[in-house]
Amino acid sequence: MSVNNENEFPILTTRRLTMRPLRESDANEIFTLRSDEEINKYVDRQRSKTLDDALDFIKIISPKTQESNLKYWAITIKGHDTLIGTICLFDESQDHKKCEIGFELLNEFQGQGIMVEAANSVIEYGFQTLGFDAIKAHTHKENQKSIALLHKLNFNLTRLTLDSEPNLVVFLRTKNQEPTS
After folding, report:
1. pTM, 2 dp
2. What ranges make up the beta strands (E) of 16-159?
């Protein structure tokens, strides 16, 4: 993983990928991610109904990445600028030791190891640069793809369900766990 200048939003690169800031020019792909029935099957959020919905989302998220500890990256294939997915670190704890990870990938790019590569880079950044001790992930208990990915990323199941969200399971990865390849 390589990181650009620390004073700017961090652009992360891996062997195949670049994770860069979200841009208004990503609206078509964000619309697809946020409106696709299969991608959103287990996600509890309002789906984008129009391209303007996607653009509004970008206009809300982009300033927050500059003003807060939210890190929200567009995932692209190196040498191409088109967004193929997103990954984020958010919901930082008050003691600044934990956060949550979230991710989504366009259907045609799933099953190619892209999210494992992107997530390992973001997790390393969270532990090494941001100083987190632990990163958690919530996913729907029936989302087998996400659960399998979290296991590949060395996350451990910590709670079968949340009291407030009985369909969500909670995974955790700590700083001292070995990364995956």
Report:
1. 0.90
2. 17-21, 71-77, 83-90, 98-105, 134-140, 156-159
